[in-house]
Structures are given as structure tokens and as C-alpha cells.
User: Fold Helicase HerA central domain-containing protein from Phyllobacterium bourgognense.
Amino acid sequence: MKVDIDMGAASAGAKAMLDLEELLATRLLVQGNSGSGKSHLLRRLLEQSAQWVQQCVVDPEGDFVTLADKYGHVVVDGARTESELTRIAARIRQHRVSVVLDLEGLDVEQQMRCAAAFLGGLFDAERDYWYPMLVVVDEAQLFAPAVAGEVSDEARKLSLGAMTNLMCRGRKRGLAGVIATQRLAKLAKNVAAEASNFLMGRTFLDIDMARAADLLGMERRQAEQFRDLARGHFVALGPALSRRPLAVTIGPVETSARSASPKLTPLPQPGEDARDLIFTPAPEERRVVVRRAVVPPTSTPTADILSQLTQTQFVSAAETPAPTLFPEIDETERNGMINTIMHEMLNDPDASFRTDAVLYQDFLVRCRIRRVLGDPLSLPAFRRNLAVARAGIDGETAQGEPWQQALELSKGLPDDVQGVFFIVAQAAVTGSPCPSDATLARAYGTHSARRARRLLTYFEEQGLVVVRTDFTGNRVVAFPDLGCETGPGDPNGPDEGVQEQHAAE
Assistant:
């Protein structure tokens, strides 16, 4: 079904129409400096298409929550745990509800983590729920930065990965990305390059004008026109908009943002009581100051002090030291307690789908309960220990040369994929069948079997493994550096870890 959305006026008095079905297949990029009318454009698009397609708005400033009053969008407060946001996103796709993810009040790193969890939940939805959805991300440069900023590398990788999935692989899952940014130079190129439709607004910096001209197929000398665009005026290009660059004026909207552009208002006339207004505290500011009498310390006679200093204390070598509050624990016993805590955490079926930050906090609490002495593990050390524990290697095999060499090989891999590497390496060292895609996906913290297969491809590209399929369709993974390989295993088999838990229950 062909649905055209009226975006406003084009040249010669014609209407600027946007093919909604084509947009779902080709995605959209909106660029313009602050005050150019990007949010107005997005609001026009959302209002005109609200009755035709499910919508999701990632809103860092809380401007789009007013859509709920007129169009029935459900506002999702971003001040939740990442696991909660992931589950909510899955239910959103299942029940086809339009939502606004309100991230107002969170700092930049929290916004990136929340958006990554939410977009990941939309992306990982079951195939039965891959209905068409318009995913609008305002201020996209916050969630897909071109360079590292002040946020942690982990948050940046999570957010950038979610945005890349949305723009690169979301189409087959029904997700149509619509991203808006103030500056193209600040937006990751692999995210911007996946859009086939463009609406370019006013911009002044040469580097942004040059990139906008390149995306629109214009000559560099024509890029000067972007400086002259008025508020709400854009240059459109793309299969859903126009085959040639087209000047567009965005039409009016029915809802408004909670925050508007500042307007000049006259200052109040200064009066004689202006100083009193500034320097006199309001009634609610007044506090009763309780003055406590200072009790002077009791003086100690000088003779007593000299007597204490001249006394010599002799400690017998045979004297037993005072008992400590906690018994001393050697390093072996401490590591054993840490391993026990790790396995207790992994016995929880939901542990594989929780973020490392959540598991790390749970680990620290358990260590305090068990009174594990010494400095707590750092987050990188915790991730590595957790990955080894997930592999389930026994003590005798862990001391062998092949496993020690596997540990060395894993040091060059990112933290988030080491758990999958250890599970496959454990199967190779012990000669067990190759783990199924479901088992590898659980170790990676996802339900997507395709991600698990991509990880094996990544390991093969790094020269760590060789993957082959035997004549019966079973998969075998060989480790040339270790001199061993897994047994044949069905890649489409069930999750062995879940089966073991059910058997134990």
C-alpha cells in the first residue's frame, strides 16, 4: 500500500510528499544546526505518519513526550535498569505500541546506555513481531559519535553498536531509522552512510557543508546555499522524497515541544526595593541557626605527658599478637571463594542476559556477604574471571598447556566476546561437541543465533580458529595454535546450559 506523507511545500507551490513505504526501506538522515527546525521536521513526520505506522522516538531532551496527549504514544521513562528497558522494548514490538523513550534528566553516558539497551531490545525481537516501525533518534551524534569523548569506551561501543544495527541491519527486522544531527562531522560515518534519504537544513561550518554536498551529490561550490537556508527550510533528496535536490519548506504541526526557542521579553523597571529583593532571604530560605557551646578539651598536666613519653614499653617476642577481627585467608582460599561466588551467579538463568555492570555490582555485594578479604576485583578482571567461569573448565584441564595457551590467545580479544571464545576453546581442549548457536548466543548475552555465528566468523578472521562443516551438517571448530578441535556438534541444537539447569531442577 502506497502512503504519501505531506511534509510541506516544495518549489512552484507543489506539495512536498514523502513515500512512507519507501522510507521504511531506505531510512532518513536529517542535518541542521541548532535552530534550523530539525525537531519541527521530525514532529511533522511523526504526526503525519502516526496513523499508518508504529513509531518509537529516542528523545534525549524530552521534547516529544507531548505526542502522547494527541496521538496516544506511551512515554517510557529512561530512568530504569538496562534489563528492564530491553524487556519493555520486546513487549513494544509484540503489541505494536508507539512510544517515546524519555531520556531527559540523565547524563550523557546514562543516555547512551539506556538507548543501547532499548534499541537492542527492538532489534532482538522474535521474528514473529518484525512489524514495520519508524525509529526516530534525535541528536543522533550523542548516540553514534564519530570520535571518543568523555564517556567510557564501554558505553560508547554499546551505543554505537546499537545505532549501527539500527541503520545497517534494521530493515529486514522492520526497523526504519530516522536520525537527526546538528553536525554531520560529529556523527559516525558508517551510521550516516546507510541512509538513502536526506533533508539538509541550515549549517555554517565548511566541513559540515562539504559532507552535506557530498551526500546530496552536489558540487562543493553549491554547498554555500546551506548557509542561506531559513528556519524550517531544507534541501531534500532520496527515493522517498525526490530524485533530484529539492527545496522543501516544512509545514505546521499540531503539537508543540515542552521547551521552545527563547523569546525576548521586556525587563521589569528597577525600583528602590531591588536590593531588598536580592539580599533579603525569602521565608522558606530562613533557617534557625542553633549555636552550640564549645566545650574546651580537658587539659592534661605536663608532668603526666612527660611520664608517658619516658616510659619504655617492652614487648616479649613470645607474646601472642592481638587477634584480628577476621581470620586470615591465603590467596588460594580467596580465589576459591571468588570462583564459588562466580558459579553461584551463573546458576541464575537470567545472568547471561544482564549487563556486566549489573553482574559486577551483584558480585561485590556477594563478596561482602562472604567476607572475602583483600582488594576487590577490578571490572576488567571480573569480566575475564566471569568468562572463564562460564566456560566451565575443570581444575585438571585448567592446569594443562592447551588451556593456558587459550588464555593467552584470548588477551587480544575484546572483553565482551571472550566468554564465547572460552566456551568454544573448552570444547576443543576437552574434545567435546561444538556448542550450538543457542549456547554461544546465551554466552554473548543475546537471543540472536545470527550474532553467535558472526562471532565465530570474527574469530576466524582473527586467525584464531578454522570452522568447517562435516558431511552430516555438524560443525567443527579447530584451533591451529592449540593443536586441537571440537567434536562435531549440531549448530541448530538446543542450549546445553538451559538443558542442564532443567535436568538439575
About this structure: The two ends are 51 Å apart (CA to CA). DSSP finds 20 helices and 14 strands in the chain. The domain at 4-250 is CATH 3.40.50.300 (Rossmann fold).
